[in-house]
Design a protein that fits this description.
Largest sheet: 3 strands, mixed
Bound molecules: zinc ion
Structural class: mainly alpha
Number of helices: 7
Helix content: 40-55%
CATH architecture of the largest domain: Orthogonal Bundle
Order of helices and strands: HHHHEEEEHHEH
CATH topology of the largest domain: Arc Repressor Mutant, subunit A
Number of domains: 2
Mean pLDDT: 81
CATH class of the largest domain: Mainly Alpha
Low-confidence stretches: 1-26
Radius of gyration: 20 Å
Strand order of the largest sheet: 4-3-5
Number of strands: 5
Strand content: 5-15%
Length: about 160
């Protein structure tokens, strides 16, 4: 409710602004509460949701939020390093509040994304995997590793 009333307040300030710089400032302010809604949804989602799912959840907090606003703010939050984006080679991007390097499992049947659970901590870390590579002339600073198959719900 606070988020919605802040949004309305900031919209009012746009209509009273006349100079270009005031409009730009107001635009930044207007975007902030909705960006906070998007961030809150991602941080409270344990299931690596897609932008579409995040939009559905954000709309419960702010009925005025648009799908375009959700997509735009997810991009901004990812660029700012506040959320993680899991770019699958197929289908929609999934989002993750967990910024630590970790790998994922993707279910081909229900499109769910989960964190990989591994017994050997070294092997599931990026550094552990990187140490085994034989590519001395390469600067390697990232890794996308996605296991695919069926989750327990879908394999029965
Ligand atoms: Zn599944
Ligand atoms: Zn994750």
């Amino acid at each position: 409710m606070n988020i919605v009333s802040n949004f309305v307040k900031n919209s009012d300030s746009i209509s009273t602004s006349t100079s270009t710089s005031n409009i730009n400032n107001a635009k930044v302010l207007r975007n902030t509460p909705q960006r906070q809604v998007v961030l809150k949804v991602v941080r409270e989602s344990m299931d690596h949701p897609t932008a579409e799912t995040i939009f559905e959840r954000a709309r419960e907090l702010d009925p005025n939020i648009s799908v375009a606003t959700v997509y735009r703010n997810l991009g901004i939050l990812f660029q700012k390093g506040e959320i993680n984006q899991i770019a699958l080679p197929f289908g929609a991007c999934h989002y993750d509040f967990n910024l630590a390097q970790h790998y994922h499992f993707y279910c081909n049947a229900c499109n769910s994304v989960e964190d990989i659970i591994a017994k050997d901590v070294e092997n599931k870390s990026f550094q552990g995997l990187k140490d085994k590579l034989d590519m001395p002339k390469y600067v390697i600073n990232g890794c996308e590793l996605i296991f695919t198959g069926l989750c327990p719900n879908c394999s029965n």
